[in-house]
Amino acid sequence: MYGTVARMRLKAGMEQELARQLADFEAMDTPGFVRTTLYRMDANGNELLMAVVFADKDAYVANAQSPEQDARYQAMRALMESDPEWNDGEVIHETSA
Q1: What is the largest CA-CA distance in the chain?
Q2: Whole-angstrom Cα distance, residue 90 to residue 56?
Q3: What's this model's pTM, rounded to 2 decimal places?
Q4: In this predicted model, what pLDDT tens digit does every residue of 46-68 receive, in sequence order?
Q5: Distance of CA 85 to CAs 42, 82, 95, Å?
Q6: 8-30 pLDDT, tens digit each
Q7: What Rg do the C-alpha atoms of the chain give, in angstroms?
Q8: Where are the domains positioned within the chain?
Q9: What is the rounded distance in angstroms from the CA atom of residue 61 to the CA atom of residue 58?
Q10: How far is residue 40's CA from residue 53's CA, in Å, rounded to a whole number?
């Protein structure tokens, strides 16, 4: 699996809109998409970490390079105070209960 972890700062009051945009994406059945996890930081409620996982790097890159994803990103970026910090990489371990 492959994906990204993004650190972002939302504009005040934009958390629900971000959640709606993410739900819209998740409903699209994007090839290779596995999951998104969104964290709100205790220290600052406007700071979020988002982990997105795809089945493999090829699926991740294909989505990231699509014009449709760029349009979705631009809509998401409008909710933020500044550009997010992206950290892409291979998922090397995962555990669930």
Answers
A1: 37
A2: 8
A3: 0.91
A4: 899 999 999 999 999 999 999 99
A5: 18, 9, 25
A6: 999 999 999 999 999 999 999 99
A7: 13
A8: 2-84
A9: 5
A10: 18
